[in-house]
Amino acid sequence: MIAITRYRVADDADFTARIAPVLAAWEAAPGYLGGDLGRCVDDPELWALVTRWEGAGFYRRALGAVRQYFVPLSALAVDEPGAYEVIKPG
User: What's this model's pTM, rounded to 2 decimal places?
Assistant: First the structure.
């Protein structure tokens, strides 16, 4: 599965510092396959965190492990669904 969270961020230096512990923890999490943090080229205040997981259960358990970092960032998140089943790999 892939998880996509988009953020509306005015201060990118603060944002990257705040999301760093989440990414570091997830790199060691069971079921984590990789991920990317990107910034929109047309709208520099719009960011996307895209991660790949072996399944939704792994992702949900990993969220619990980073709750203290991830929940405060939710104020910056765009309110939209973010978990997707991969239909065609690659």
Answer: 0.87
